[in-house]
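Q: A small favour: would you put together sequence and C-alpha coordinates for a protein?
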Amino acid sequence: MNDVFIHPNAVVSDQAEIGAGTKIWMNVQIRENVKIGRSCIIGRNTYIEDGVTLGDNCKVQNNALLYRSATLEDGVFIGPGVILTNDKIPRAVNPDGSLKSADDWHAGHIHIGRGASIGAGAVVLTDLSVGAWAMVAAGALITKNVPAHALVVGIPARIVGYVCKCGQRLIAHGHNGDRIWICTRDGLQYRMGAHGDLESETA
Protein backbone atom coordinates (compact mmCIF):
# COMPACT_ATOMS: atom_id res chain seq x y z
CA MET A 1 0.00 0.00 0.00
CA ASN A 2 1.70 3.14 -1.28
CA ASP A 3 2.15 5.98 1.16
CA VAL A 4 0.05 4.38 3.93
CA PHE A 5 1.21 4.43 7.56
CA ILE A 6 0.03 1.58 9.78
CA HIS A 7 1.26 1.51 13.37
CA PRO A 8 2.92 -1.82 14.28
CA ASN A 9 0.28 -2.42 16.99
CA ALA A 10 -2.66 -1.93 14.61
CA VAL A 11 -4.53 -4.95 13.22
CA VAL A 12 -5.61 -4.35 9.62
CA SER A 13 -7.21 -7.08 7.52
CA ASP A 14 -5.53 -7.99 4.25
CA GLN A 15 -9.00 -7.69 2.72
CA ALA A 16 -9.37 -4.01 3.68
CA GLU A 17 -8.74 -1.29 1.08
CA ILE A 18 -6.70 1.66 2.38
CA GLY A 19 -6.17 4.80 0.31
CA ALA A 20 -2.84 6.52 -0.25
CA GLY A 21 -1.72 8.91 2.48
CA THR A 22 -3.92 7.40 5.18
CA LYS A 23 -2.51 7.04 8.70
CA ILE A 24 -3.68 4.28 11.07
CA TRP A 25 -2.52 4.62 14.67
CA MET A 26 -1.91 2.39 17.69
CA ASN A 27 -4.31 -0.42 18.65
CA VAL A 28 -6.68 0.22 15.75
CA GLN A 29 -8.56 -2.78 14.38
CA ILE A 30 -9.85 -2.66 10.80
CA ARG A 31 -11.86 -5.64 9.62
CA GLU A 32 -12.23 -7.27 6.21
CA ASN A 33 -14.12 -5.51 3.41
CA VAL A 34 -13.54 -2.07 4.94
CA LYS A 35 -12.83 0.68 2.40
CA ILE A 36 -10.93 3.77 3.56
CA GLY A 37 -10.20 6.60 1.16
CA ARG A 38 -7.12 8.76 0.68
CA SER A 39 -5.48 10.91 3.37
CA CYS A 40 -7.64 9.73 6.26
CA ILE A 41 -6.55 9.65 9.92
CA ILE A 42 -7.72 6.74 12.07
CA GLY A 43 -7.05 7.48 15.76
CA ARG A 44 -5.82 5.18 18.49
CA ASN A 45 -8.06 2.33 19.75
CA THR A 46 -10.61 2.76 16.96
CA TYR A 47 -12.61 -0.26 15.76
CA ILE A 48 -13.95 -0.35 12.19
CA GLU A 49 -16.14 -3.35 11.41
CA ASP A 50 -16.50 -5.13 8.08
CA GLY A 51 -18.56 -3.37 5.44
CA VAL A 52 -17.77 0.19 6.62
CA THR A 53 -16.77 2.71 3.93
CA LEU A 54 -14.93 6.00 4.46
CA GLY A 55 -14.36 8.61 1.76
CA ASP A 56 -11.24 10.77 1.38
CA ASN A 57 -9.91 13.13 4.07
CA CYS A 58 -11.92 11.70 6.96
CA LYS A 59 -10.73 12.05 10.56
CA VAL A 60 -11.72 9.37 13.07
CA GLN A 61 -10.57 10.22 16.58
CA ASN A 62 -9.49 7.88 19.39
CA ASN A 63 -11.78 5.13 20.73
CA ALA A 64 -14.46 5.48 18.03
CA LEU A 65 -16.56 2.41 17.17
CA LEU A 66 -17.82 2.19 13.60
CA TYR A 67 -20.01 -0.87 13.16
CA ARG A 68 -21.17 -2.52 9.95
CA SER A 69 -22.36 -1.10 7.60
CA ALA A 70 -21.80 2.65 7.91
CA THR A 71 -20.90 4.90 4.98
CA LEU A 72 -18.98 8.13 5.54
CA GLU A 73 -18.59 10.54 2.63
CA ASP A 74 -15.50 12.72 2.07
CA GLY A 75 -14.32 15.00 4.86
CA VAL A 76 -16.33 13.51 7.72
CA PHE A 77 -15.14 14.14 11.30
CA ILE A 78 -15.78 11.45 13.93
CA GLY A 79 -14.99 12.63 17.46
CA PRO A 80 -13.44 10.61 20.30
CA GLY A 81 -15.65 7.83 21.62
CA VAL A 82 -18.33 8.12 18.94
CA ILE A 83 -20.46 5.00 18.36
CA LEU A 84 -22.16 4.24 15.04
CA THR A 85 -24.59 1.43 15.84
CA ASN A 86 -26.06 -1.23 13.54
CA ASP A 87 -28.83 -3.11 15.39
CA LYS A 88 -32.29 -1.71 16.23
CA ILE A 89 -33.35 -4.65 18.39
CA PRO A 90 -30.17 -6.12 19.89
CA ARG A 91 -30.34 -9.51 21.57
CA ALA A 92 -27.60 -11.95 22.52
CA VAL A 93 -29.93 -14.95 22.09
CA ASN A 94 -32.88 -16.13 20.01
CA PRO A 95 -36.29 -16.76 21.65
CA ASP A 96 -35.30 -20.40 22.19
CA GLY A 97 -32.26 -19.31 24.19
CA SER A 98 -29.70 -20.24 21.52
CA LEU A 99 -26.85 -17.81 20.93
CA LYS A 100 -27.50 -15.54 17.98
CA SER A 101 -25.22 -15.91 14.96
CA ALA A 102 -24.57 -13.55 12.06
CA ASP A 103 -27.45 -15.22 10.20
CA ASP A 104 -29.97 -14.35 12.93
CA TRP A 105 -30.00 -10.59 12.50
CA HIS A 106 -29.86 -7.86 9.87
CA ALA A 107 -27.30 -5.07 10.10
CA GLY A 108 -28.74 -1.58 9.64
CA HIS A 109 -27.02 1.24 7.81
CA ILE A 110 -25.84 4.74 8.75
CA HIS A 111 -24.98 7.35 6.11
CA ILE A 112 -22.99 10.46 7.04
CA GLY A 113 -22.82 13.18 4.41
CA ARG A 114 -19.85 15.13 3.16
CA GLY A 115 -18.11 17.37 5.67
CA ALA A 116 -20.39 16.45 8.59
CA SER A 117 -19.03 16.36 12.16
CA ILE A 118 -20.05 13.94 14.91
CA GLY A 119 -18.97 15.29 18.30
CA ALA A 120 -17.18 13.40 21.07
CA GLY A 121 -19.18 10.64 22.72
CA ALA A 122 -22.19 10.97 20.40
CA VAL A 123 -24.21 7.86 19.52
CA VAL A 124 -25.93 7.44 16.14
CA LEU A 125 -28.71 4.85 16.01
CA THR A 126 -28.89 2.67 12.92
CA ASP A 127 -30.85 3.21 9.70
CA LEU A 128 -30.38 6.97 9.91
CA SER A 129 -28.57 9.65 7.94
CA VAL A 130 -26.65 12.75 8.94
CA GLY A 131 -26.70 15.36 6.18
CA ALA A 132 -23.75 17.10 4.57
CA TRP A 133 -21.97 19.67 6.77
CA ALA A 134 -24.24 18.95 9.73
CA MET A 135 -22.84 19.35 13.26
CA VAL A 136 -23.72 16.83 15.97
CA ALA A 137 -22.88 18.08 19.47
CA ALA A 138 -20.76 16.10 21.92
CA GLY A 139 -22.79 13.51 23.80
CA ALA A 140 -25.83 13.73 21.53
CA LEU A 141 -28.06 10.73 20.77
CA ILE A 142 -29.20 10.66 17.14
CA THR A 143 -32.63 9.01 16.89
CA LYS A 144 -33.83 10.51 13.58
CA ASN A 145 -32.34 11.84 10.36
CA VAL A 146 -30.33 15.06 10.61
CA PRO A 147 -30.73 17.56 7.73
CA ALA A 148 -27.76 19.10 5.92
CA HIS A 149 -26.10 21.95 7.87
CA ALA A 150 -28.26 21.31 10.97
CA LEU A 151 -26.79 21.79 14.46
CA VAL A 152 -28.23 19.15 16.79
CA VAL A 153 -27.77 18.71 20.54
CA GLY A 154 -29.17 16.64 23.38
CA ILE A 155 -30.72 13.27 24.24
CA PRO A 156 -32.55 12.69 21.99
CA ALA A 157 -30.89 15.17 19.65
CA ARG A 158 -32.92 18.13 18.41
CA ILE A 159 -32.18 20.90 15.93
CA VAL A 160 -31.14 24.15 17.62
CA GLY A 161 -29.79 25.96 14.57
CA TYR A 162 -27.73 25.63 11.42
CA VAL A 163 -24.02 25.91 10.62
CA CYS A 164 -21.94 26.96 7.64
CA LYS A 165 -19.48 24.69 5.82
CA CYS A 166 -16.82 26.39 7.97
CA GLY A 167 -18.66 25.27 11.14
CA GLN A 168 -19.78 28.72 12.30
CA ARG A 169 -23.38 29.29 13.37
CA LEU A 170 -25.73 30.74 10.74
CA ILE A 171 -28.01 33.66 11.53
CA ALA A 172 -31.54 33.65 10.04
CA HIS A 173 -32.83 36.76 8.23
CA GLY A 174 -36.27 37.41 6.75
CA HIS A 175 -39.55 35.56 7.13
CA ASN A 176 -40.53 31.94 6.57
CA GLY A 177 -40.96 31.84 2.78
CA ASP A 178 -38.15 34.29 2.10
CA ARG A 179 -35.76 33.40 4.90
CA ILE A 180 -32.02 33.17 4.32
CA TRP A 181 -29.25 32.05 6.68
CA ILE A 182 -25.97 33.98 6.70
CA CYS A 183 -22.60 32.86 8.07
CA THR A 184 -21.25 35.16 10.77
CA ARG A 185 -17.69 34.45 9.63
CA ASP A 186 -17.59 34.67 5.83
CA GLY A 187 -21.02 35.99 4.86
CA LEU A 188 -21.99 32.88 2.88
CA GLN A 189 -25.74 32.65 2.34
CA TYR A 190 -28.04 29.61 2.43
CA ARG A 191 -31.70 28.93 1.68
CA MET A 192 -33.93 26.04 2.72
CA GLY A 193 -34.30 23.43 -0.01
CA ALA A 194 -37.39 21.42 -0.88
CA HIS A 195 -36.36 18.52 1.34
CA GLY A 196 -35.61 20.56 4.49
CA ASP A 197 -31.86 20.80 3.88
CA LEU A 198 -30.06 24.14 3.74
CA GLU A 199 -28.42 24.79 0.37
CA SER A 200 -25.65 27.26 -0.35
CA GLU A 201 -26.55 30.04 -2.78
CA THR A 202 -22.97 30.28 -4.02
CA ALA A 203 -21.79 26.65 -4.26
Q: What stands out?
A: The mean pLDDT is 94.
